[in-house]
Amino acid sequence: MMTVATEIHDDHGATFEERGGRQVVRDYGRPDRTALAVRKGAGVIERGYGVITVEGDDRIEFVDDTLSNQVPTVDGQGVYALLLDPNGRIKTDIYVYNADNRLLCLTPPDVAADLAEQWADRVFIKDVRVNVASEEFAVFGVHGPQSTEKVASVLNGAGAPEPSLTFVRGSMGDEGVTVIAGDNPLGEESYQVVCSADVADRILETLLTYGLNGVPFGYQVWNTLAVEAGTPRFNTELADQIPNVLGIRNALDFEKGCYIGQEIVSKVENRGQPSKRLVGLRLNQMAEVDSTVTADGDAVGTITSVVESPSIETPIALALINFKTTLTDEGDITITANDSHPIEATPTTLPFVEGSATSARIPTYPEPSAETNM
Description:
globular; six-stranded mixed β-sheet
């Protein structure tokens, strides 16, 4: 599937890559300079989501029964949640928005079709209709310390929504849009602008050139800023992990009733510690994903993401390490891949970069206990 606003991306000199079977913008050139521009102003990216709509009288109960967080019952509200397997491991993350007579679900692009099929197979006698609508919608992200001013400068008929994951309906130019307050995955104020795919070019042009200027950016910059913000992402950190390992407590409702995988999540929570935790490391040179993290001579974990940070001008990494491992500045921490020369690393409290907002996904953990971990 192509990007929705391909012509405008081409006009801005975009190069493309494939993510989950969908073409997305990789960059527009000068990614380091662009990343710094987003951190100082407002950047605009076309998001490569998969989209599922769920309709019918039983839609809320049906979707809620499958997810780790409570599906909102009120129009204009949303939630970030996880779909787990019976062993408590993450099959996908998902945003679910209550859009009056239907739920709008945003997933990683390669997940939507299979998830919709699984849901459709489970409907039985419930009044639920599940459809893949990825080609019907365009979703644009607006990120940066001036993103509220950017949205306010072009949105008609409503003010910028708040709090996080609530939305308003309005227009940009003559086209209808839904604007969602984001959960700040890049460590900056953020919004999502959802529109019909057939008006995507006009909405993107509005976001880039009308009102306060917007800087176009692609997924290379997205990934860099997300790592700087300490945000675990599906393909790099979340997939096939137990949620407690990532510390993404905003995706979990511990008071909610049963859902698939809930028993494992609750068991790990009650014990007070998972098997691993996500940490930040500054490196003295670039490393490779899946490299081994060694502390005082012992292998303690692996690198999950690594980027050159333009904000702090050094390579940085996210790593999953054994939960009980204590990393200190005085310790001998190295990164190695195969037989390569060890790379020096320094533990860093997340986020690496303090922006205009804090990512809702930044890892949060209970204090380690003396009990056996999982």
